[in-house]
Structure to design on (532 residues):
């Protein structure tokens, strides 16, 4: 697809400079293939010769055919102490055998004088010679003008001179970098206009960092000023505060600025691409992230929900399905009867907002939230609550009693936790015990052990997250706690909640809801299969 703006992704290089963000070679290959499928125009794979992982990536990536993307190798201008022909960095870029390479050079006199410690004229020579040499071996050379905006503010004649050297030597694109992330949008726009007047025939790009929370805004302003090449990372991952977030830039370009840089059908994969990268890096997603976050189109207030039902545009700036997201209706003490109706419909339960059951559920939710319950992250507990109000619940087991012992025998040894439990299933009593890593884990193990004899499908279920929040009220150990549990059976994930002054009781409530929801979900799925 043709577009007047090309997207240049640097997640695999600049993104990996972020704290706690690491990718294996296999991860990088999988992400590159996903970005190609998505429709990104350029994918910066790494810096050859800087580490063995990137060298291996460029070797491995040759085994794949890319339909939409150009793989790019990244590096710097040649070292001041040598020539382009003898520079190991440039040799590694050529050896990577990519269709395009990107090199950065110094635009700011402070860096030339204090970091490189060379004359200003020597830096211009290095830029010119590096680009010219690479052009002899690589089809396309992109030049990143590092610290361009800071350099322009200090000495605009010199900053512009560095661009002219790269342009005259054959660079296809001159990328203006806000490397420190401190430039304001109005400053950036004015500097771009002056740069365009200085080099009217040059193709310009933008590379922004997010240290002032302006990377996306600056990137969009750059495009508004005529920039045709935009660099960024998926989810804004990057060094310090991150890079310009392509998950926000892309939908803003496509849907707000009418610049279709990604196909409409591919745009619907945006949330999937965002989550895919985070999953491979083992980083929890930011639920509040615009466009792709789980809360991006979540509505909690009753007035909002009522308006959304009549016309989604009242509280949504775009249709969430355009970026692969979905609308979520949250239930809380702020909810109205319309919220309960909408949530019941989500669960396939018919209920009118004028139904007395809706008011009953609403009052119960408000009472529970007064006690400390929250259902935004525990929708399985909420669905079970609505089912109980409608008289559609099924009791899969009954607790007779449990006991948990935490025993510490020596000061240097960890405590040993053991839970004993007695339950009744269909008139049959099961009495068992289990050890665990702490009392809650022991209780969970004992309950599963007792139930798996009757419900073997529980073996596929696991607890994947467990959070405890001390609630305000009484101080210290007398406080109430809220326990949130997230469970999975490999196909679905669901959240449940419990609240009590006793952490074991709160955990028990959430565990029971989690297991009950698993049984209910499987039963519902089996019925649906049988009816098809």
């Amino acid at each position: 697809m043709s577009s007047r703006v090309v997207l240049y992704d640097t997640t695999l290089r600049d993104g990996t400079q972020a704290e706690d963000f690491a990718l294996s070679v296999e991860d990088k290959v999988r992400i590159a293939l996903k970005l190609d499928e998505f429709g990104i125009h350029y994918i910066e794979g790494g810096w050859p010769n800087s580490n063995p992982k990137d060298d291996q990536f460029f070797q491995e990536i040759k085994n794949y055919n890319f339909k939409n993307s150009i793989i790019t190798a990244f590096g710097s201008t040649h070292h001041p102490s040598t020539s382009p022909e003898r520079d190991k960095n440039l040799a590694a870029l050529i050896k990577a055998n990519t269709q395009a390479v990107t090199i950065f050079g110094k635009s700011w006199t402070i860096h030339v004088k204090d970091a490189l410690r060379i004359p200003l004229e020597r830096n211009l020579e290095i830029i010119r010679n590096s680009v010219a040499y690479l052009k002899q071996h690589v089809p396309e050379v992109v030049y990143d003008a590092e610290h361009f905006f800071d350099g322009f503010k200090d000495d605009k004649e010199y900053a512009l001179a560095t661009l002219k050297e790269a342009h005259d030597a054959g660079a296809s694109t001159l990328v203006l970098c806000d490397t420190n992330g401190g430039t304001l949008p109005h400053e950036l726009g004015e500097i771009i206009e002056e740069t365009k007047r200085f080099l009217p025939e040059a193709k310009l790009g933008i590379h922004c960092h997010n240290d002032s929370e302006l990377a996306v805004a600056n990137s969009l302003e750059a495009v508004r000023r005529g920039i045709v090449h935009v660099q960024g990372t998926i989810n804004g991952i990057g060094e310090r505060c991150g890079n310009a977030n392509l998950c926000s830039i892309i939908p803003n370009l496509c849907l707000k600025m009418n610049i279709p840089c990604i196909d409409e059908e591919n745009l619907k994969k945006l949330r999937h691409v965002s989550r895919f990268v985070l999953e491979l890096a083992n980083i929890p997603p930011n639920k509040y992230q615009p466009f792709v976050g789980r809360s991006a189109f979540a509505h909690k207030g009753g007035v909002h929900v009522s308006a959304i039902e009549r016309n989604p545009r009242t509280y949504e700036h775009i249709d969430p399905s355009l970026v692969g997201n979905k609308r979520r209706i949250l239930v809380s003490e702020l909810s109205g009867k319309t919220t309960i109706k909408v949530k019941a419909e989500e669960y396939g339960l018919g209920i009118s907002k004028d139904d007395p059951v809706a008011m009953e559920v609403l009052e119960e939710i408000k009472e529970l939230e007064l006690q400390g319950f929250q259902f935004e992250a525990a929708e399985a507990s909420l669905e079970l609550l609505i089912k109980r109000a409608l008289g559609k619940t099924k009791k899969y087991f009954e607790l007779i009693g449990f006991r948990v012992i935490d025993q510490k025998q020596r000061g240097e040894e960890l405590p040993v936790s053991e839970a004993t439990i007695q339950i009744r299933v269909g008139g049959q009593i099961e009495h068992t015990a289990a050890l665990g890593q702490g009392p809650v884990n022991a209780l969970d193990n004992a309950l599963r052990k007792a139930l798996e004899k009757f419900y073997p499908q529980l073996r596929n279920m696991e607890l994947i997250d467990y959070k405890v929040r001390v609630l305000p009220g009484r101080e210290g150990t007398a406080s109430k706690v809220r326990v949130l549990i997230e469970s999975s059976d490999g196909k679905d994930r669901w959240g449940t909640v419990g609240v009590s002054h006793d952490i074991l009781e709160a955990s028990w409530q959430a565990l029971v809801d989690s297991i009950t929801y698993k049984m209910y979900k499987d039963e519902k799925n089996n019925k649906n299969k049988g009816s098809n």
